């Protein structure tokens, strides 16, 4: 490897790890007001790293936690990359399941264990230090680079979209880079080519005006718990297909080539089944497990509450029954339209013996990255060089809502380049990040800058 | 009215009311250990009333609250009546909905308001004082009379069946009298000719071994909340019929005469619908509301619990889903057999993607009183004399499990002669008892002794 930046990165590995440890020690839990200063300190850490490396960097106050931006735009005629990351973390609970303090980063063999190790400080710092080392070693970057780092990702980024709308010119770019996801598996880097959207609903069925004695009134008054069960169970048929009229109208079907590529991914269904602990897998007829999780819309019951739920027997005919359920959406399903279809459908099938209220609690748009763009091609070449293995395309069942916002507000696509692993315990105790992934991630982003400059 | 006992009763009405007030002042809440002494004091009150009237009375300790028995058996060759009642009460909660202290009996117009007013101190004391006045006035009773009064009815009578089994000879009788129910309506006395039984089940559906992220795993792993909804909703069809194979096998159908009698009962379906606050009534096709509540077996969801039930959205694919449901049974359905049928059926329809555990939480046998017995005929004549109105037959959707025990252990039927009203707020705030019903109840039991002596 003759690349001087790669050589510089490799010479400095101890410092990279030490910097990550320093960042991970800051308990930047965005959801807890008591940690507001820590979130700001974590942002200051990023600001210092970027301004120290020669970026024009700034911290911006918002109605919540601050946003950090930075830019180096001295490559006229070259593309501009906007690097997104976040420096806030999930709460560490349940804290007693950690092997050590969640904010006492500990190296265990090949991995570093701490809250935020993979989500997202480890991945974000790989990008920051990779690019900073490029600038420090080379004196310039091959393309223009901007950074947008936030402290509110774990609480739904309430202030980021307004911030982007107020800084359209400063954030203008050709493509976004996000490393807040995973590789396909160990030694198998991947580009995430789609993210699902979300439509999260709540339905409340009301029967009698108060709880009744099921002996005195049972059989004469419709039971709202029974109606709720009937409504929810009818939303999916025995083939695992959602029955809401119009639900599949806007679904972009997988192409034969995409299905073939998914079929080629190494996947051990039995090991998967065992890891989730079910007697048998189940999903939409006609699709594989990876197609179901990655590329098909789904519907899940998320919560049920009705009547007596304590120990033993209480013979109540409940007044109300509540159900929460959500649909994961794929391109080009629109969460607002789906919420409307769901509401109309439930209202139309609710029996005249009850009343229902259907609420749209939360939504997010699906994202499909155009895989034929030069940016994606560049990212694949960079991953192949950085990891020494050709990357595969993967489809993520979860959502990263800000990616849809980038498309909508800035009009640009996102390169979703996961540096972590599926089993890194994001949001769980003993969150970890493989140091090898950290170092390869830095090298990969250096290659990415070169490839994007071509 | 020339009957000297009736005259004596009418001359003493203030004392009857005062005695009831004294009994109602004792907070004999059987479920609260702190009130154990109060329950005993309430039993002592009954003991004193009966022994003071010339009965051979005793209080018996049990593993729980005491049982009070009494007997007067100097009418050789005449039938023996066993009078059952209970002197414990429900907790008064929610206490802030009472117009005054629940144990400060207050006369409001025609009614006395206090916890226990109708359930069962008021009704039981009508029987006690009616019979005691008979003995005091007449020097003897026209039949043999025994009393069995317990302090654990509101907690399921755990010690009563063992007590009965240990005192078979002492409790031997020809028929039981229970006044722990209601008339059909104001100015419409009734004999309750059937009580439903109960089979109360709980089903737990388990899918993945822990809660999963519905984005990452949704669509590939069966959702136990969805399976629970499917299982429970399938237990009843669109005609309101229970679908469990064999469920109706042992049902004794109503005769044409019984259906005609039910159809003749005054019933305002619209007022009923409004009183429960539903947009429309609903039940088993082919049966009227009174047939459904009184004479047809039913199935109700009593509780549902699964996943996230707090505010807002949590995108969980839950590991477990729990449902409680119960069936009200009619003669000759057996709760143990029904529980077995339900368990087998649910296990057979549970998909292979989940596991289920089905539990039998509670059961009770249905009761059908033979309406052609001389005891029932005597009770009807007594009610007609006591209330001045011919009684009707009614069927109760609720259960009084001890009645099935009397049949099983003592081999005798029960006269179910409700003195209260449906709207007396048993188990609810501002429980009440109409003083007119109290006084007419005393006179009715006097007539009943005469009629049984014929």
Structure description:
2 copies of one chain form a homodimer. By secondary structure, the first copy, chain A, is α+β, with helices and mostly antiparallel strands. Chain A has 2 domains: 4-195 and 366-453, 3-Layer(aba) Sandwich (Aminopeptidase); 197-251 and 297-364, Alpha-Beta Plaits, CATH 3.30.70. Chain A has 15 helices and 18 strands. A 6-stranded mixed beta sheet of chain A has the order 1-2-6-3-7-17, sandwiched between helices. Chain A has a 4-stranded antiparallel beta sheet with strand order 11-13-9-14, covered by helices on one side. A 3-stranded antiparallel beta sheet of chain A has the order 4-5-18. The first copy, chain A, is globular and about 85 Å long. Strand 11 (298-307) of chain A pairs antiparallel with strand 11 (298-307) of chain B, so a sheet runs across the interface.
CATH domain class of the largest domain in chain A: Alpha Beta
CATH superfamily of the largest domain in chain A: Zn peptidases
Q: How far is the first residue's CA from the last residue's CA of chain A?
A: 19 Å
Q: In the CATH scheme, what's the topology name of the largest domain in chain A? A: Aminopeptidase
Give a quick account of the main beta sheet of chain A: strands, pairing sense, barrel closure: 6 strands, mixed
- Assembly state: homodimer
Which chains share the greatest interface?
A-B, 80 and 80 residues
Class by helix and strand content of chain A?
alpha+beta
In spatial order, strands of the major sheet of chain A run 1-2-6-3-7-17
Strand portion of chain A: 15-25%
Measured as a percent range, the helix fraction of chain A is 25-40%
Mean pLDDT of chain A: 96
* Number of structural domains of chain A: 2
Count up the helices of chain A: 15
Overall, the morphology of chain A is globular
- From the coordinates shown, what is the CATH architecture of the largest domain in chain A? 3-Layer(aba) Sandwich
| Low-confidence runs of at least 5 consecutive residues of chain A | none
The total of beta strands of chain A comes to 18
């Amino acid at each position: 490897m003759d690349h001087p930046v790669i050589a510089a990165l490799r010479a400095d590995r101890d410092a990279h790890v030490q910097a990550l440890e320093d960042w991970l020690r800051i308990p930047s839990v965005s959801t807890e007001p008591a940690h507001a200063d820590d979130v700001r300190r974590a942002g200051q850490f990023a600001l210092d790293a970027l301004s120290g490396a020669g970026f024009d960097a700034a911290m911006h106050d918002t109605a919540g936690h601050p946003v950090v931006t930075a830019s180096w735009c001295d490559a006229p005629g070259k593309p501009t990359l906007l690097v997104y990351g976040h420096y806030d973390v999930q709460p560490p609970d349940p804290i007693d399941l950690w092997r050590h303090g969640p904010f006492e980063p500990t190296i265990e063999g090949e991995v570093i264990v701490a809250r935020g190790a993979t989500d997202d400080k480890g991945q974000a710092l790989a990008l920051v230090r990779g690019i900073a080392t490029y600038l420090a070693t080379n004196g310039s970057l091959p393309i223009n680079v901007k950074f947008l780092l936030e402290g509110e990702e774990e609480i739904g980024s309430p202030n980021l979209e307004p911030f982007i709308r107020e800084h359209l010119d400063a954030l203008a770019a050709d493509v976004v880079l996000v490393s807040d996801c995973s590789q396909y598996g160990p030694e198998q880097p991947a580009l995430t080519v789609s993210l699902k959207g979300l439509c999260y609903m709540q339905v409340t069925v009301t029967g009698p005006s108060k709880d009744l004695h099921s002996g005195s009134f049972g059989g004469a008054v419709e039971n709202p718990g029974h109606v709720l069960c009937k409504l929810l169970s009818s939303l999916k048929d025995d083939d695992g297909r959602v029955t809401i009229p119009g639900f599949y109208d806007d679904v972009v079907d997988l192409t034969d080539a995409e299905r073939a590529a998914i079929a080629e991914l190494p996947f051990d269904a039995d090991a998967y089944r065992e890891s989730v602990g079910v007697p048998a897998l189940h999903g939409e007829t006609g699709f594989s497990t990876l197609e179901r999780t990655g590329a098909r819309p789904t519907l899940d019951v998320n919560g049920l509450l009705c009547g007596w739920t304590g120990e033993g027997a209480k013979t109540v005919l409940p007044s109300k029954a509540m159900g929460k359920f959500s649909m994961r959406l794929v391109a080009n399903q629109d969460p607002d339209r789906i919420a409307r279809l769901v509401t109309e459908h439930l209202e139309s099938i609710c029996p005249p013996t009850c009343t229902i209220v259907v609420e749209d609690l939360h939504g997010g748009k699906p994202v499909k990255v155009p895989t034929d763009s030069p940016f994606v091609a560049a990212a694949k070449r960079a991953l192949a060089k950085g990891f020494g293995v050709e990357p595969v395309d993967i489809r993520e069942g979860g959502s990263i809502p800000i990616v849809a916002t980038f498309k909508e507000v800035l009009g640009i696509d996102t390169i979703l380049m996961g540096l972590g692993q599926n089993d890194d315990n994001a949001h769980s105790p003993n969150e970890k990040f493989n140091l090898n992934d950290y170092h390869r991630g830095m090298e990969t982003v250096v290659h990415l800058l070169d490839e994007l400059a071509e």
